[in-house]
């Protein structure tokens, strides 16, 4: 049985203006193993077209091409892939070696595509390179070789999977006379070993080396004659088992491709990395600043105590805010008055009723409820000692939230003894040793102002506040008495709930909020800061993310350029048996590697920047403001990979769909 048989093969090309051009007019021929057939004819007679259809690169033909009795048209996709990998070996006029791979990888690329093991693959490539006399050059890249050497590499590559048929399209067309003879001898040796060699040539001299000459003119065989037959030698055939290329091999191949254009890829990765960096930096900065602010606001509190304040219901607040926003001047004035009242401690809406206190007391795990009062004054509350005078901002009652560590000197004031505690800063402005000294206090109580002599028994410094807040503290019962003495009633506007165990404090706070109460002023401010900061962080992150869109477009463009640059290479790989999937995988892997590289660059840049920024902020105000968490780093890398792979979809698809014949013809 002939290895190949052509039966009335016709090939039509679609013309750009419509209509068809018949490049092959019913070609019929039989080819046997061990033949070396020269296909000769004028330029444009249809020689390459015939080789492409026989080689399975162009399946759009009429008639039959039988390989070992089976019609190529009936081949399944897998059979066609195996036909390329195992049955046919191509040698091209312009060599079509892959420029960025060394000779070993160039020769063994068909084996890489067939998932043949690394050691065997490399050994076979070395053996073949030795056979074609390139032993010393095997680690070189193609552009370090002469034309004749390149064609020898191409011969070795065509033989690597030990195919039955070698198709050589003008293999000596680009070589001088002397080199032509060497190459022809090598190709003849292939036929000597019993393979079928089909060789396109323009040269009658080259045709003279062959065992048979087939002349084509305008798509038809016009002459087919035998010449001196080739004497065959029996040789052992290699049994190379071909498989589909694994994903790992595709990634490895992609890595080699990327290395070849390292500069360009590194620039792209840096560009994308900067985009990723801006996103992670914004997130890390948001987190860092938020936890710094919360830390600053929350350090004062005794972890066992929940400070609860009363606010009007959220609905009412919203309604009031709406009125104010609508420009209702009466509503605005009312709101301002209420704000002032609530700050000065004279607001009725901010005091706790006995019903409120009962509700709070009933919260689970509350061990103790302590009533308190807090008011802010701007200028009215003052204390004086001898000739020195200090203005106070806060008037507060002694409470359980004050941690022992906050008391700098002395002790807490006791009830019924006219004792007070003042903050350390204010104490220092009055005199050196204020403990035990009697001072004059000028205080605003609700709507009245009073003067009273009190004894300083302690000074304190609120934790987390480096600048001391001017404060006077006295026992709740003393303040109540003072109010009473002046015809006023003191209602608590703050409540301190002590939990039975520290772990319940948060739950108590949450429950109190559920009941319609609010946390301490600091907590409320922290929450407000938190929400402002998180909105700000998201807005800044979104702005930073725009740069990722730019990076994605950049990757798309670069990969597209890469596909255009490597069109011939893609054609060669398809001729060697690469499936669409393999090509897609190689390019997707390149996109993956760019994404991974960019992600790593992004995380590294953020880390370096965070070190620099934190170094500065620690020395400036003792706090690190950038918190780069492993989650953010991982998110950065994942986002980078995903964006890059999305950007790679179009170029990879484009590459996988390239027609091998068009790709190989590409100049
Ligand atoms: N894609 C195509 N679309 C239209 N016509 C084509 C296409 N490819 C080839 N042809 C035409 O088919 C004919 C045969 O081309 P082919 O390349 O097979 O010739 P050839 O004998 O190999 O020529 P050469 O020796 O110059 O390489 C030519 O007339 C050519 O113009």
Automatic annotation (TrEMBL):
Regions crossing the membrane: 266-286, 535-559, 591-612, 632-650
Protein name in the entry: ATP-binding cassette domain-containing protein
Q: Decide whether keyword Plastid is in the record.
A: no
- Location (main, coarse): membrane
Q: How does it sit in the membrane?
A: Multi-pass membrane protein
Compartments, as annotated in UniProt? Cell inner membrane
Q: What does UniProt list as this organism's lineage?
A: Bacteria, Bacillati, Bacillota, Bacilli, Lactobacillales
Which SMART domains is this protein grouped with?
A: AAA
One GO BP annotation is:
amino acid transport
